[in-house]
Amino acid sequence: MTSIILLSIFGILNLFMGFMRSNKVLLPGAMLLLLAVFGANLADWNVVHAPYFNNMLVVDNYTVAFTGIVVLTTIVLLPFSRSYVVAGETNLAEYYALLLFSLVGAVMMIGYNHLIMLFVGIEILSISMYVLAGSSKRDSRSNEAALKYFLMGAFATGILLFGIALLYGATGTFVLSDLAGAVAAPENASLQPMLYIGILMMIIGIGFKVSAAPFHFWTPDVYEGTPTFFTAFMSTVVKTAGFAAFLKLLAVALPGAQGFWLPTIQAMCALTLLLGNVGAAVQTSTKRMLAYSSVSHAGYLLIGLVASRGNLTGDAASGIFFYSLAYSIATIAAFGVLKLVADHRQRDDYAALNGLGKTNPLLAFSMTVAMLSLAGIPLTGGFFGKFFLLAAAAGQGYIGLVVFAVIMSMVGLYYYLRPLIAMYLRPAEEGATPVPVDGIQTATLALLALLSIVLGIVPGFLSGIL
Amino acid sequence: MRPKPVGATFALQRLLVLLRSNLTAMLLVLPAANYQPSDYLPILIQFGLALAFVAFAMIVSHLVGPKRNSTVKDASFECGIESVGNARTPISVKYFLTAIVFVLFDVEVIFMYPWAVNFRALGNDGFIAMILFMFFLLAGFAYIIKKGILRWNEA
Question: Where in the cell is it found (chain A) (predicted)?
Answer without folding.
Answer: Cell membrane; Endomembrane system; Membrane
